[in-house]
Amino acid sequence: MSAPQRPMVELHGIHKSFGPLEVLRGVDLRVRAGEVVVVLGPSGSGKSTLLRCVNHLEKVNRGSVRIDGELIGYRRTGNRLRELKEREILRQRTHIGFVFQNFNLFPHLTALENVAEAPVSAQGRPRREVLELAAELLDRVGLADKADAYPRRLSGGQQQRVAIARALALRPKVLLFDEPTSALDPELVGEVLEVMKDLARAGTTMVVVTHEVGFAREVADTVVFLDGGVIVEQGPPDEVLDRPKHERTRAFLAKVL
Ligand code: ADP
Ligand code: MG
C-alpha cells in the first residue's frame, strides 16, 4: 500500500449514550493518511453518531479522538481533560471536512460563494485567493460552468458536488461523508461517487458512511462493519464483503447486496 503509515484519525474507546440509550459502546478505529475507510452498518447502529463524535459535534462520554495527533475537543492538563473553548473547537473543525446527506448548502449564496465562505470567514484567508481556489475546486468536481448558480437551480448531484468542493476548500486533514448519496435520485448517484473516487485516488484521507457496496469494493482500503454500537469486523473489502467472519455481517450484506 502506497499510503504512509502516519495515523490521521485515531478513535480510542469511544462511548456515547443519549440518556439511557447506549449508542456507541467502545469503538476503536485508526485511519492512516491517504486511507479510505468505508463504514457499513444497519440503520440505527451509530454510524452518524460516530462521525459526529469525530469532529466533536457530539461529546463522547468516554474515549478520545485524535486528528493528526491532536486531541479533539479537549485539552489535557496533568491527568485531567478540560473541554476546549468553542473558538478552539471551531478551529479544530476546520481541519475536518464533513459532507452531509442533505448537502446543507447556503441557499442565498451561489455555488462559488458557498465554496469560498468558510475559508474567508473561519480561516481569515484572503478573499481573492480563496475565490480563485473555489473556482478551481468547482472545476475539479465538474461544475466550472455553475459557479454563479444558486443551489435551488442545481440538481441534487450538483449540489452535493458543490458541498464536496466546499469541504475541500478548508484543506481538511480528513473528509467525513455521512451517506452522501442517500438523498439522491438513482441516476445522480454515479456523478457524486465519481468525484469521491477521484479524491480517493488523489490520496485524500476519507471516512465514508454509505450503503454503496460497489463503491466500498472499488475504493475502500478498509471496510468497517458497525452494529449495535461496536465494530463487529473490519478488514480489506474482499475479506469483509466476500468472506465475512461474522453472522451479523453476513446477514447485513445479504440485505444490501
Ligand atoms: P445510524 O447513522 O447508524 O443510522 P445514528 O448514529 O443516527 O445511527 O443513531 C444511533 C441511535 O442513536 C439511534 O437509535 C438514534 O435514534 C439515536 N440518536 C441519535 N442521535 C440522537 C440524539 N441527539 N438524541 C437521542 N438519540 C439519538
Ligand atoms: Mg446515519
TrEMBL record:
It catalyses: a polar amino acid(out) + ATP + H2O = a polar amino acid(in) + ADP + phosphate + H(+). Its EC number is 7.4.2.1. It is found in: Cell membrane. It is a peripheral membrane protein. It holds the Pfam family ABC_tran. InterPro entries: AAA+_ATPase (IPR003593), ABC_ATPase_HisP-typ (IPR030679), ABC_transporter-like_ATP-bd (IPR003439), ABC_transporter-like_CS (IPR017871), MetN_ABC_transporter-like (IPR050086), P-loop_NTPase (IPR027417). It is an enzyme of class 7 (translocase). The keyword Cell membrane applies. The keyword Membrane applies. Keywords: ATP-binding, Cell membrane, Membrane, Nucleotide-binding, Transport. GO terms for cellular component: plasma membrane. GO terms for molecular function: ATP binding; ATP hydrolysis activity; ATPase-coupled polar amino acid-transporter activity. Residues 9-253 form the ABC transporter domain. Its main location: membrane. PANTHER family: AMINO ACID IMPORT ATP-BINDING PROTEIN (PTHR43166), L-CYSTINE IMPORT ATP-BINDING PROTEIN TCYN (PTHR43166:SF35). This is ABC-type polar-amino-acid transporter. It comes from Polymorphospora rubra.
